[in-house]
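Changelog note: in this version the structure field was regenerated for every chain. One regenerated record is shown below for reference.
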Amino acid sequence: MGRFHRHDDGDGHHEHPHEHLHEHLHEHGHPHEHSHEHSHEHGQHHDVPEPASRHEDVGDHTGYATGSDRIAVLERIFDENDHCAAHNRADFDAAGVTVVNVMSSPGAGKTEVLARTLAALDASRVGIIEGDVETALDADRLAAGGARVSLLNTADGFGGECHLDAPMVRHALSRLPLDGLDLVFVENVGNLVCPAEFAVGEHLRAMVYAVTEGEEKPAKYPVMFRSADVVLVNKTDLLPHLDFSLDRFYEYLARVNPQVRTIEVSARTGEGIDAWVAWLRENTAAPLRKPLGA
């Protein structure tokens, strides 16, 4: 597990990983296209899971002279992450908190969706682990909405991690009062691949997808779409101005995740947020200390 230091810049403590769990194997990236098998029994917490994936398929490294060594390193990275994720899940379950990992590409609208969500909930019972490469802009905005926010800036000597992992999330938990919360959102770093490869101990995965990104993204970047429990199709207010077919997008999505729930929303206008909040109510552990939205 990496070491962190903290500094206070006036907006609260920010974390910067010094020695990450990961070894940067291609520039400062990670292997892509890993299979994640997971199931959710909605409406209740799950037992502490087995590691989210055995990560047996770590890609074709036969072109590298150190292929077998690379595979061993990758397996160790994922095993260590999964071990920490299980500890995170145990802490969430012990506190009676449901955790939703919110993922998307940059600019898809995660923060705007969460801001709208906080306005529809009892925000004082909501925590947010905010992942950004730099700045506290999104964290400050969500804190202003009444949530308890723990910020993780991932900037480091490699220019910034492209996702949150389980050890980062575990460190961020030190500043969240889990016993006083019902729901925690992990707003992951904007990236269409890497966040889906690392379990953080979450119970549910929500993906925010903007219609401005194109119809074919589930086919081109299937990992995140495949791992999501719900896809929020955002920026629907722009559909009249785009050459975009929702039917075609749903066809691509069904090929990689036929069971996923989809909710059409516009974070700008608020359309669809009620349906999203209703989904949260349906899939949040019961009993809650205080009903969401009360």
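Spot check on this record: The longest strand covers residues 126-132. Residues 1-58, 286-290 have pLDDT under 50 and may be disordered.
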